[in-house]
Amino acid sequence: MENELPEAPRAVRLDGRQVRVLAHPLRMRLLGTLRVDGPATATTLAAKLDTNTGATSYHLRQLAEVGLVTEDPDRGTVRQRWWRAAHDISNFEPTDFDDDPDARAAVQWIQADQVRLLAEQAERWMAAAHGYSAAWRDAAGMSDVLLTIGPTRLKALNGELWQLLQRYRDEPAPDEPEAESVLFFLAAFPRLEQGR
């Protein structure tokens, strides 16, 4: 049997309407959960995210209205609607919204939520790390480096890192007995001194 190439991830470049709809805590969690765990019903999502089915259904419809989630007709029944993420990856450039103050504010909220998620996940890891093997404790973690670099080279560097991450995601995983899902955050921005 020949090696099959992995299916390319479905990506969407977010528009102003989509970022405004996405800038909501439950909507971000719903989309993220559908991307990570696959299709689900509003009832299943409500239980997983500790909310109620009515709120979950409402926010799923809001996400569907702008094309970020879609019904999964192969799984649905007359009594149950199944939902799935319409894309694997959402992306945008912050400058896409320079002329749209509401979308700019939504992007700022989305980015702040990503920072919050990073801090939350890092704290969870640090609290649970003692229960993991030495191999995991040595492999996981955070680091930083200070570069002197311009925006053109920084954009190129981010592009190369993204390609490397995609390659690791798309390559068939070797048989590793301790393999788990890993969150990898990528952030790069100018170092600003206090008071600047």
Mean pLDDT: 89
How do the strands of the widest beta sheet line up side by side? 2-4-3
CATH structural fold name of the domain at 11-132: Arc Repressor Mutant, subunit A
Cα-based radius of gyration, to the nearest Å: 19 Å
Overall geometry: globular
Q: Kindly state the number of beta strands.
A: 5
Biggest beta-sheet profile: 3 strands, antiparallel
CA-CA gap between termini: 60 Å
Question: What is the correct CATH architecture of the domain at 11-132?
Answer: Orthogonal Bundle
Strand percent estimate: 5-15%
Give the number of helices.
7
Write out the CATH superfamily name of the domain at 11-132.
Winged helix-like DNA-binding domain superfamily/Winged helix DNA-binding domain
Helical coverage, percent range: 40-55%
* pLDDT < 50 stretches: none
CATH domain class of the domain at 11-132: Mainly Alpha
Order of helical and strand elements: EHHEHHEEEHHH
Global structural class: mainly alpha
List the helices and strands and how they pair.
Blueprint: E1 11-13, H1 16-22, H2 25-37, E2 40-41, H3 42-48, H4 53-65, E3 69-71, E4 82-85, E5 89-91, H5 101-128, H6 134-139, H7 151-170
Parallel strand pairs: 1-5
Antiparallel strand pairs: 2-4, 3-4
Helix pairs in contact: 1-5, 2-4, 3-4
Account of the 3D structure:
The chain is mainly alpha-helical and 196 residues long. It has a domain at 11-132: Winged helix-like DNA-binding domain superfamily/Winged helix DNA-binding domain (Arc Repressor Mutant, subunit A), CATH 1.10.10.10. The protein is built from 7 helices and 5 strands; from the N terminus they run E-H-H-E-H-H-E-E-E-H-H-H. The chain has helices at residues 16-22, 25-37, 42-48, 53-65, 101-128, 134-139, 151-170; strands at residues 11-13, 40-41, 69-71, 82-85, 89-91. A 3-stranded antiparallel β-sheet has the order 2-4-3. Strands 1-5 form a two-stranded parallel ribbon. Helix 1 crosses helix 5 and helix 3 packs across helix 4. The longest helix is centred in the middle third of the chain and has 28 residues, at 101-128. The model has no long low-confidence stretch (mean pLDDT 89).
